[in-house]
Design a protein that fits this description.
The chain has 217 residues and is of the alpha/beta class. It is built from 8 helices and 5 strands. It comes from Candidatus Pantoea edessiphila.
Length: 217
């Protein structure tokens, strides 16, 4: 394998991390007490030329865990009705287990070491996922235990915008405010945004890195 092809593999692009885009919708801001209501995850792939694209998707409506709180203001903001039988909601365990199976397969297929969460304002989604993992006693999470890629930070640096809708528009990506706050839609838009930011850096000549020969002449 040439050095260029080696650097254009996803396991080399992110130092062995396998990026997985995640969005979580909740019934509040406290991961210990407020219900996790919806989650979506999208894996990414890199072609032979080093361009990154969306790959597989998993999306679930979640049953509020026993004793969890449902903040009316949060429900009004997301438009989620936890009592709607048409949601076909599953348990936190079922949703996370299915997502983790997809992620572990991606890690194995790409030769990466572990997954890393990509999310917009990633701290929020990460803490809710970690709390759900603890509640369900799921073992061996495929995600890095504390590192994330935050598209709000990356967008602020590259686009001058930190709000997802504004960052997408600044990047030339359509954004439908009516569909926003659906975990599936927000994950798809965040994934498209992350791919655009990574690919834009490549188009600008920032990847693969230019190595300088420092040998004395």
């Amino acid at each position: 394998m040439s050095e260029l092809n080696y650097l254009n593999s996803i396991n080399q692009r992110f130092r062995g991390f396998y990026p997985v885009v995640v969005d979580i919708e909740t019934a509040g801001f406290n991961e210990q007490t407020d219900a996790l209501l919806e989650i979506a995850a999208i894996t990414l792939k890199m072609d032979s030329h080093g361009w990154i694209h969306l790959n597989e998707t998993r999306h679930f409506h979640i049953e509020p865990f026993k004793g969890s709180l449902l903040n009316p203001e949060s429900l009004a903001f997301t438009g989620i009705d936890p009592t709607n039988p048409l949601r076909s909601a599953v348990s936190e365990y079922e949703a996370l287990n299915a997502i983790f199976e997809m992620v572990r397969k991606g890690i194995k297929d790409t030769g990466c070491n572990c997954a890393i969460m990509v999310a917009h304002n990633a701290t929020f989604d990460f803490k809710f996922m970690m709390a759900a993992i603890e509640r369900t006693s799921l073992k061996h999470s495929p995600f890095h235990p504390f590192a994330t890629f935050d598209t709000a930070t990356l967008s602020g640096l590259i686009l001058g915008q930190t709000v997802l809708a504004k960052a997408c528009k600044a990047a030339g990506i359509n954004f439908d405010n009516i569909q926003a706050h659906s975990a599936l839609y927000d994950t798809e838009q965040t994934a498209v945004l992350f791919c655009e930011l990574v690919n834009r850096w490549k188009r600008l000549g920032g990847w693969p890195p230019k190595f300088t020969d420092n040998t004395e002449k």
